[in-house]
């Protein structure tokens, strides 16, 4: 347990891996003109009517970050916002035709990076690791 605590302290290995994954994704998504968070937001918005609050949770950002993400994707012509008819305080986020056309191109990038990340792991090892991560998030109340 002491070794685990040492690995997780200071320069957290989990944080380093997360940063490396984001860097790899950002490099591969750059030719499409989107960042990892923008691509994740666009992908999540493509599943149907979604409020900015729902998407905020899915991409792991706060209100100000969500507003910046939406502004940038809207400026690029990838999504639009419209008032939520069921809740005047919120907006619904929808991909534009241009955004919908981009999704099949960017979606495989996430799978490619995940494949690289888990290279050399058996299916059981990957499943166990994912279960551990889920349990860690639950332990932290996420």
Outline:
With 142 residues, the protein is mainly alpha-helical.
Sequence-ordered SSE layout with sheet pairings:
Blueprint: H1 2-8, H2 13-29, H3 36-45, E1 50-51, H4 52-59, H5 63-75, E2 79-84, E3 87-95, H6 97-117, H7 123-139
Antiparallel strand pairs: 1-3, 2-3
Helix pairs in contact: 2-6, 3-4, 3-5, 4-5
Keywords:
142 residues, mainly alpha, Arc Repressor Mutant, subunit A, three-stranded antiparallel sheet, 3 strands, 65% helix, 12% strand, globular
Would you give an account of this structure?
This protein is mainly α and 142 residues long. The protein has a domain at 14-107: Arc Repressor Mutant, subunit A, CATH 1.10.10. Helices cover 65% and strands 12% of the residues. The chain has seven helices and three strands, in the order H-H-H-E-H-H-E-E-H-H. Strands 1-3-2 form a three-stranded antiparallel sheet. Strand 2 (79-84) and strand 3 form a beta hairpin. Helix 3 packs across helix 5 (63-75) and helix 4 crosses helix 5. The longest helix is centred in the last third of the chain and has 21 residues, at 97-117. It starts with a helix and ends with a helix.
Instruction: List the strand order in the largest sheet.
Output: 1-3-2
CATH superfamily of the domain at 14-107: Winged helix-like DNA-binding domain superfamily/Winged helix DNA-binding domain
Task: Output the number of helix runs.
Answer: 7
Q: Count the beta strands.
A: 3
Order of helices and strands: HHHEHHEEHH
Structural class: mainly alpha
Quote the CATH topology of the domain at 14-107: Arc Repressor Mutant, subunit A
Biggest sheet overview: 3 strands, antiparallel
- In angstroms, what is the radius of gyration? 17 Å
> Low-confidence segments, ≥5 residues, pLDDT <50?
none
- Helix content class: 55-70%
Query: Beta-strand percentage?
Result: 5-15%
- What is the mean predicted local confidence, pLDDT? 90
Distance between the termini: 23 Å
Shape: globular
CATH level-1 class of the domain at 14-107: Mainly Alpha
């Amino acid at each position: 347990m002491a070794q685990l605590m040492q690995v997780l302290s200071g320069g957290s290995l989990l944080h380093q891996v997360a940063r490396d994954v984001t860097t790899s994704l950002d490099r591969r998504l750059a030719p499409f003109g989107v960042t990892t968070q923008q691509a994740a937001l666009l992908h999540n918005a493509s599943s149907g009517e979604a409020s900015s609050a729902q998407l905020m949770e899915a991409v792991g950002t706060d209100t100000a970050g969500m507003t910046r993400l939406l502004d940038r994707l809207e400026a690029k012509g990838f999504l639009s916002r419209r008032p939520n008819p069921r809740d005047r305080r919120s907006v619904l986020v929808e991909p534009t035709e241009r955004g919908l056309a981009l999704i099949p191109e960017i979606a495989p990038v996430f799978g490619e990076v995940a494949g690289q990340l888990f290279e050399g792991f058996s299916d059981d090892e990957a499943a166990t690791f994912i279960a551990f991560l889920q349990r860690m998030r639950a332990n932290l109340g996420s």
